[in-house]
């Protein structure tokens, strides 16, 4: 069955350009597929996670994404006359299988398999990391797998083999932050003295070396 | 700013360095403690429930960006920066050196806290008497330790009572106690705290191992099962291995050793400071260390005694960079663990995200030579430990069985299933100390400060392969008995060659030609220099090393206190003993 390409939610993106956002999201959505009934990577906003990661912690992989997407779309345009995200899901799956077998040329020092593996790893991260990182929208990823999230702790009954925790309310880091503000007594406070602050030298312009015996300048 | 000076310089305030800091400051020494990482405040870990930050991105660990290490399988091959620790895939903190900062690896650790077996201190004697001299593989250097279990017994007890370990004793004064580890060496006192509450799927593990004739017991855990002073009891949140603790239940040296050391007024901490070398004077004594401070400036600090406790690999790197390797033994006898991961699914929901991993039980029947190795063709042993908690969804997705598709509907269906039914077991076979496994300085790769990287030359061998095959058979038997619906194994010979359990490389011994430090961790070459940590282990065994490392730190501290008084062997290095003794 051929479906029309879905619309990419580009709210808040700071890194990906137009085709890049559509292409990366299409790849994520084939890795963990979904729809409104049973959400997957697209519905959970994994694209926004990857975009935000590339804008910060993962900036070293910016080039790999940019070049990888360009190479992939070049290949699909030559082969199908369309960009990757414009293909049907069945066609996309055929391409992904070829990437996994490392059969798509043009990835230079890298490989189509390495490119796919990188997107795979980041899709999983965006699906299951705390929503504060931009993915896992409304904790959809955690709901999917039955993970209750950033829980302060579990009771003995909850840790019984076979216990049913499906009704347990999911907690995110935002919830822990609130708990810590409201009830800091639930958390650990190390007793005793704090270490001394490091001795500060005069901040600002580095001083030139002095001759022995030369008086110190102002601010020393 | 003038150079700093103290009676004792301690480089690295982790699992062992912080113990020495407390013991020596309380004895009246001034101590300058220098650590590569930060000082964490307790509220730094209140928001630690974050798999991405602390596990996937290894938020507490040193990484190859700042602390490059290279690896090659053998001396004929070119080394590269550890390939399992670079690239866009998750950084598994178990495949990096331990966390840095005050408290060191004792912050992020999973808290398995074992005493070694008597047998672990005398592998050569055990194996030669059981299997004959010919059983020791060619190119191996299997020796007895120069210290015994009895030497360390009181110091093990100090770790368990002063830092805090939960567990069930199996042998108190020679009397075997029901429900503990019947194989452990006799202890004078039971554990300080009762065992933790085990994870959900521990029940079928215990039933299965009992049925198979093994002797399951709660693994000893350096986590509080009860409130102790300001520290709270474990809440079983399940963010434990790779994480700090939000309630102070994990027993680290940052919470247990540093506060009393600071309270003496004798400890000064220099954090975010990277020691670059040990400076030795014309008399052959360590007089100072050079370090780059938090602002990037090169500085020097001097002390009467210098203690390196910055992890086996970093201690060794510092020795080599400082040109201190007269007998050629620095870097030799490198041993590590093969974790032998074994995963599966069970019929019931396992809630594998809840509870610390260490709360799982273990069997020690597979350790040492409790099952005879004559027909098995390998040496060494390990407990098999149940890993039924502390496992979050990103790690589960990355632990994919070979027959499951890694994308598409099949992958999604698998994720839904496995997260609800997952369990794991692991073992820790130690490599034998082989001539071909060692560390030295990389001739090319340098860190950002221009200092040479350490180079690991290591490969797994026939002993590791045969042991892994045997252990997998036992794990399969247990899983079958547990009713597992599916199982899969990590490769017999892992792709990684760092495990946070690097031992040896500056081993202890009585022969100055065959070891780096004496039985009290004092350098044979530089008599006022000590090297503490797992680097002193002459051979390795199946246990997590930290409690032994910490017991040795107490043992070394006691030696330093004793030998700096009343004409002891260290008095010639210390300048202000009058004040201390007076």
Gap from first CA to last CA of chain A: 77 Å
Main beta sheet of chain A, described? none
Q: How many β-strands of chain B, per DSSP?
A: 21
Overall morphology of chain A: globular
Rg of chain B to the nearest angstrom?
23 Å
Helix content estimate of chain A? 40-55%
Radius of gyration of chain A: 25 Å
Mean pLDDT of chain A: 90
Structural class of chain A: mainly alpha
Number of strands of chain A: 0
Order of helices and strands of chain A: HHHHHHH
Average residue pLDDT of chain B? 96
Individual helix count of chain A: 7
Name the beta content range of chain A.
Answer: under 5%
As residue ranges, the low-confidence spans of chain B are 577-582
Verbal overview:
- Helices cover 40% and strands 0% of the residues of chain A.
- Chain A is mainly α and 220 residues long.
- In chain A, helix 1 packs across helix 3.
- Chain A is globular and about 65 Å long.
- The termini of chain A are far apart.
- The C terminus of chain A is likely disordered.
- Chain B is of the alpha+beta class.
- Helices cover 24% and strands 16% of the residues of chain B.
- Chain B contains 14 helices and 21 strands.
- In chain B, the strands form five sheets. In chain B, strands 1, 2, 8, 9, 10, 11 and 21 form a seven-stranded mixed beta sheet that branches. In chain B, strands 7-14-15-16-13-20 form a six-stranded antiparallel beta sheet. A four-stranded mixed beta sheet of chain B has the order 4-3-19-18, covered by helices on one side.
- In chain B, a hairpin with a 5-residue loop joins strand 10 and strand 11.
- In chain B, helix 1 packs parallel to helix 13 and helix 6 packs across helix 12.
- Chain B is globular, with a radius of gyration of 23 Å.
- The relative contact order of chain B is 0.19.
- The C terminus of chain B is likely disordered.
């Amino acid at each position: 069955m051929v479906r029309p390409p879905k619309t990419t939610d580009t709210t808040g993106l700071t890194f990906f350009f137009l085709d890049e956002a559509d292409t990366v999201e299409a790849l994520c959505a084939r890795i963990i597929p979904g729809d409104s009934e049973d959400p997957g990577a697209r519905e959970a906003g994994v694209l926004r996670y990857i975009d935000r990661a590339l804008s910060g912690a993962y900036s070293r992989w910016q080039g790999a994404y940019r070049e990888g997407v360009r190479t992939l779309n070049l290949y699909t345009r030559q082969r199908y006359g369309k960009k990757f995200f414009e293909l049907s899901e069945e066609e996309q799956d055929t391409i992904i299988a070829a990437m996994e077998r490392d059969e798509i040329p043009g990835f230079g020092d890298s490989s189509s398999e390495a490119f796919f593996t990188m997107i795979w790893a980041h899709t999983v991260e965006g699906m299951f990391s705390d929503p504060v990182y931009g993915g896992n929208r409304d904790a959809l990823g955690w709901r999917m797998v039955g993970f209750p999230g950033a829980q302060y702790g579990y009771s003995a009954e909850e840790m019984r083999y076979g216990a049913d925790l499906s009704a347990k309310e999911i907690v995110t880091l935002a919830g822990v932050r609130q708990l810590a503000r409201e009830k800091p007594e639930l958390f650990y406070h190390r007793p005793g003295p704090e270490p001394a602050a490091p001795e500060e030298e005069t901040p600002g312009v580095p001083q030139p070396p002095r001759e022995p015996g030369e008086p110190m300048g102002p601010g020393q | 700013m003038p150079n700093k000076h103290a009676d004792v310089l301690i480089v690295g305030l982790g699992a062992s360095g912080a113990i020495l800091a407390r013991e020596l400051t309380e004895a009246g020494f001034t101590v300058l403690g220098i650590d590569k990482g930060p000082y964490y405040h307790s509220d730094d870990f209140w928001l630690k429930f974050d798999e991405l930050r602390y596990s996937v991105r290894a938020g507490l660990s040193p990484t190859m960006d700042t602390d490059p290490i290279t690896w090659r399988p053998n001396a004929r091959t070119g080394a590269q920066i550890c390939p399992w620790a670079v690239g866009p895939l998750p950084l598994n903190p178990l495949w990096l050196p331990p966390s840095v900062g005050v408290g060191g690896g004792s912050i992020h650790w999973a808290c398995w806290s074992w005493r070694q077996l008597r047998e672990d201190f005398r592998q050569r004697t055990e194996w030669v008497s059981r299997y004959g001299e010919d059983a020791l593989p060619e190119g191996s250097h299997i020796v007895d330790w120069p210290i015994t279990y009895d030497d360390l017994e009181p110091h093990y007890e100090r770790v368990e009572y002063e830092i805090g370990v939960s567990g069930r004793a199996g042998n108190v004064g020679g009397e075997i106690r029901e429900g503990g580890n019947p194989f452990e060496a006799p202890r004078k006192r039971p554990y300080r705290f009762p065992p933790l509450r085990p994870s959900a799927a521990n029940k079928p593990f215990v039933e299965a191992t009992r049925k198979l004739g093994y002797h399951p017991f709660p693994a000893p855990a350096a986590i509080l099962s009860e409130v102790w002073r300001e520290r709270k009891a474990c809440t079983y949140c399940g963010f434990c291995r790779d994480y700090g603790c939000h309630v102070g239940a994990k027993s680290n040296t940052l919470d247990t050793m540093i506060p009393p050391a600071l309270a003496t007024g004798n400890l000064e901490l220099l954090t975010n400071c990277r020691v670059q070398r040990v400076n030795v004077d014309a008399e052959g004594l360590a007089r100072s260390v050079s370090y780059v401070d938090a602002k990037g400036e090169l500085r020097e600090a001097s002390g009467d005694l210098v203690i390196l406790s910055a992890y086996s690999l970093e201690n060794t790197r510092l020795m080599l960079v400082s040109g201190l390797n007269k007998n050629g033994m620095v870097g030799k006898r490198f041993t590590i663990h093969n974790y032998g991961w074994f995963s599966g699914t069970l019929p019931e929901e396992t809630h594998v995200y809840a509870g610390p991993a260490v709360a799982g039980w273990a069997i020690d029947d597979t350790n040492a030579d409790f099952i005879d190795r004559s027909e098995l063709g390998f040496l060494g042993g390990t407990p098999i430990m149940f890993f039924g908690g502390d496992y979050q969804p990103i790690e589960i997705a990355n632990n994919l069985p070979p027959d499951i598709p890694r994308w598409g509907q099949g992958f999604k269906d698998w994720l839904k299933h496995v997260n609800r039914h997952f369990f794991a077991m692991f073992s820790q076979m130690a490599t034998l100390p082989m001539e071909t496994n060692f560390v030295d300085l990389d001739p090319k790769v340098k860190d950002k400060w221009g200092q040479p990287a350490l180079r690991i030359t290591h490969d797994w061998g026939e002993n590791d392969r045969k042991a892994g095959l045997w252990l997998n058979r036992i794990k399969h038997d247990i899983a079958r008995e547990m009713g597992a619906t599916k199982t899969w194994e990590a490769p017999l010979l892992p792709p990684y060659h760092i495990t946070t359990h690097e031992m040896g490389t500056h081993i202890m011994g009585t022969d100055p030609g065959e070891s780096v430090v004496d039985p009290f961790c004092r350098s044979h070459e530089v008599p006022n220099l000590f090297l503490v940590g797992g680097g002193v282990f002459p051979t390795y065994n199946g246990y997590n090393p930290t409690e032994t490392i910490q017991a040795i730190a107490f043992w070394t501290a006691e030696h330093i206190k004793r030998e700096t008084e009343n004409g002891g062997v260290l008095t010639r290095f210390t300048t202000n003993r009058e004040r201390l003794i007076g």
